[in-house]
## 1
Amino acid sequence: MARTERSIKRRTFLAAGVAAAATLPTASVAAETPVVIRGVDPYRVYDPAFECVRVVLKTRGERYSPAYVQGVSGSGFRMGGPCPCAPTCAMAMPQSDLVRLLGYEAEELTFADRKDLKERLGEILPRIKAEIRAGRPVIVFHAFTSAEWDVVCGFDDAKHEFLGRGGYQNMRGREYARADQGRMITCVETCPPIGALIVGAKDRRFDARKAEMAALKEAVRHARDTKRKNYPFDGLAVYDRWQEHWRADDAKPDWLRDGYISAVYSSTHQAGSDFLREIKGRHRAASAHLERAAERLQAEARTLHQILALLFPGEGKPQPELPDLRRTMRDLLARARADYGAMADEIGEALPRLGA
């Protein structure tokens, strides 16, 4: 992970790195700016990868809960790292696949193999604006946050700005965030620019049972994947690596490894727990196992939140040296690991009862 991401992501996450719009004028004519789609739902889960899909589909009339999207996307059970790239890299599927899974067309506008980023940006921006004029928000990487997937639901050409939603707390209120329209190509010091995702028409039926079964199977496989030798790790191996760090005599809190990861996974795993409770009534043969899996995943999420509060109690600033901090961290991580592993075991017991 580049050193610049340490400062960029922490600064953007903690402070109002993107100025909120003071007022959001209504566009009376499509050719005028600012053009703003009002009433776009804020992020309900701090998930940098898939909550954007739910937000966009809600504008199409879909009523999937935040927990359900986290579940069927796999994000509610994912554990990667421990490094800040993991929540957007260690995914069960790309965003476009989730859009298609839920029954919609998906068009990816990428910067792949394009050396002239500004030229490609000039091709992508009109497509995004055309969607917004038609009342359809667009998913854009690094639009407002740092190397995360955001929702653009307005633009102001007079100020050359996009307006929209992101996962950080300062983007979840009534007002939209604002950022330069070219910001999506400014993440080059952190990662390659990715682009935008346009959600098209609904063209197929969503097979809920098939999607739920696939998500449960992948949750178990991912959690038990301890074979990866290269960093970042997956599943239980993340906890093993994390605990190893806190065995070192010079171990100190690090926002990207300890804070950001705890913030994301405490939120997404709580949603994963809620997903299990949401679907257990449709899978009665395995209902008891799914409930116990939900309890263990919720316990793990709470421990991760406890780690976040312990290490970064005030606006992300590290806690002053605490007595026995390294031992406390190892104990908390061991508890979280045990609950995460037990969650996978309970889902593993549920699968045969579901015909898997």
## 2
Amino acid sequence: MVIKFQDVTLRDGNHALRHSMTPDFVSDYCKVADTAGIFSVEVGHGNGIGASSFLVGKASFSDRDLLSRARSALKKTRLGVHVIPGFATAKRDIQPAIDLGVDVFRIGTHATEATTARKHIEYLRSRDAYVQGVLMMSHSVNVQVLVSQAKQLRSYGADAVVIMDSAGNYIPNDVTTRISALVEGLDCEIGFHAHNNLGVGVSNSLAAIDAGASIIDGSAMGLGAGAGNAALEAIVATYRRLSSTPLQLQPLLDMSSLVETSYRDSLPRMTAVSIQSGNAGVFSGFAPHVKRVSQEYGISQEDLWTELGKRRLVAGQESMIREVAKDLMNL
């Protein structure tokens, strides 16, 4: 089985940079990535195209600025984008991305809301685009619901289905159970996107491969939301010891060096907060909001993370963090 490694550094990594990644860096990174033999490089605002806003973070540069520079630099590697219905619309965001030459569209919804992806997927399939359906916060539902939601994405025309461990909540056994069920239940490629809140992102990615996943996400130096993603170079380095792959390690290490040199102060790491969010099963990107609000109201971050987990908040509901904190204060 050939594994498609997808690089999300230039999209998920924008969370760690507060959506300030520059077109020049995107261009420089893509020139190196184009030599690595990976399947695709995903580019844009951390929450995907069309998401720049005061709610989830204003981007320093437009989608067009970043995508056009990436497209010019990528000759062999596919260009990808993340799309969340509600942030991105077909006419305003998706069609311009098609016109710019985007190859891979990933339509992401909460793990219980696959129906919201239908119009976006059908729009893209009508234009012969390659589409992956993505279920975010996949830990928040049981296996049966996850498979059912994945089947819906497939029925709309998704070429593949990817599950995201958005909160970094999984351990390898969780991944094995869910990926195995998806591989058995669907007639398309299955993928996995890890976060490293509990320090097992690479192990989880390898468990996904062992269970039959053929699409694996990673980012250089793990650059991403919260404690970051599984480090792409570490996934590939370990996988090369376990199985045959044409991928060479050096270009991936060059990509990592570029990230480390350019954004040394923004590199993700495991912290008490990342472990709290991972255990609570809450989106890693909430970390700066939780820190700010907990200080403002004088409540512990652990209590706030726990309550957010109980209420199953998802990305895009940042404004609710303050309301939850107020409720805790009242209690």
## 3
Amino acid sequence: MPTPTSGTISINDINSVFGRGNNLNAYRGTVWYQPNSLVYGYFSAGAISLSDFYNKQGTDPASAGSALYTTPGTYSFTVPLYRNSLTVQVWGAGGGGGGYAGYGNPGGYSAFSNVIAYGGGGGGGANSYVGGAGGTAINGSTNYSGGDGSTYGGAGGNSGGGAAGGAGGTTYLFNFGRLNDNQVWGGSNGSDYGGGGGATQIYGGKFRQDGGAGGGGGYAAISYGPSGLAAGSTISVVAGLSGTGADSQYSASVGYGGIGAVSIVWT
């Protein structure tokens, strides 16, 4: 609670806020802050009077803190009063891997206002070998695209890694000696944040069914100075939903994309 803004002010009012006792000389050179403001200063080291203490407080109203959004959805972020900087990182979600059963689904975009990181594309399925495209990013001071998924999901092909984020899922030998000696490969999930999902492959003497791997999510980052964002303003935040993989076949898994995320840190 700050001191009164006008009218009568007493040494008791001052002591209750600053806690340096009832001798006014003890407050010389002490730092003060204005409430709900970035304005601060120091009381004189020389002459000092009660009127110098109007609308002051002894603690900094600006705060440091952080927020992390990883559960898919849309949120409202209220900008705190910060003194130095507010830094935002945005990761788009990874695309799902494709396979015998069909195409993987793209990952969802993540955003902080108009700073957007798009999700990776889903991998092709049922012999549509093309991997999902890496997600792009816009309006950050830094914008990176995620890695493209591998054209062939099988035989060790990797999905696209998230830009500045999670690694892509791999495609690994899931089972051998099934389906008249066909090899069945499964895809692992992309890691957080934004890794693309691995694809599946069925390969053998009778037929071959390849899927493409999912693309990695994009990444954007931006920092704001003390006057860059108004304290108390509300900003829309979106955390992207990971892309699901195509349905599994013959007990072979299909990788899902890594989740999207938004990180906010202020000092």
## 4
Amino acid sequence: MMQGYRFWLAAMLLSALCASIYISAGNGTMVWRTLAATAKLSIESELASLGKANAWLNSQPLRAADLRGKVVLIDFWTYSCINWLRTMPYLRAWAQKYKDHGLVIIGAHTPEFGFEKDLDNVVWAAKEQKVDYPIAIDSDYAIWNAFNNQYWPALYFIDAQGRVRHQNFGEGNYEQLEVTIQQLLAEAGYDGFDRALVSAHGEGAELAADWNSLRTPETYVGYGRAERFASLGEPLLDRPRVYGAPTKMNLNAWALVGDWTMRRESAALNKANGKVSYRFHARDLHLVMAPAERGTPVRFRVSIDGQPPGMSHGIDVNDAGNGTIDEPRMYQLIRQSAPIRDRQFEIEFLDPGAEVFVFTFG
């Protein structure tokens, strides 16, 4: 039974676009691994064109020809993705350590949700998340498609001759990835950098996930990718409907309660006091949310097992569970201490106008 559960969870997590990959450790635990191979650095392809970026932040437009002689790390990201956020301590550390030794990191921001196509939102998020290396705005997926990429986050390592030598999809494996950077720099004739590997520790939402206790997969709310919907009443697509609470929720099921409109990417609350419930098993619970109108905040209150979260509150709520949606982004709502077990989460919106996109966990 446990073995079957492990394979089910692995399959569920493989379906997430913010890539997280699990394998069985053979002892009843789930161990996370990236999709990257650890083979020697073969020549995989040439650096794809960056010329079709919609805009650039932190830099003038960069062309492949401008980057010859440099080691380049292309990082595909979208700012609300928890898997990308948890890689940021290492990306910042590498950018700082190797910027004067031949490394150029370029963040290709390719949006998952419509609000991530808004340049003002990306500018705000880059500042908030301290992304100060060059950013290619890839809202039309031109760079994404040129690389035949499929994941957030995804890293492509390009040598000084403009050849892709290594790829890495998902989180983790940071020591091997930094060794890859050093190897490519050495091949290009760069030296003088400290060979000791960086030690980066995330805080807040950037803290590494507690993979051993994680039993709940990323869950989309919009009908385009929604699964395990448990509300009373069949979903009514793109039209308002009042949904009722189920009498019982199984693990990893979720429900809308109140007057909502289910859209392809999100569920939008039409009247105040609507709720979303989720039965989950993880240390952290995050929810990507947005106010329907910029500049019109939406107040909310969260509970866990019917009580205020107390010390189990996330960084975006207080111990009473109160918070406010003020920007379209990911909100950390729960961070609990061990022991981790099945819990019932609920968020109630005290104002209309909330949009809810995806639950993620850590």
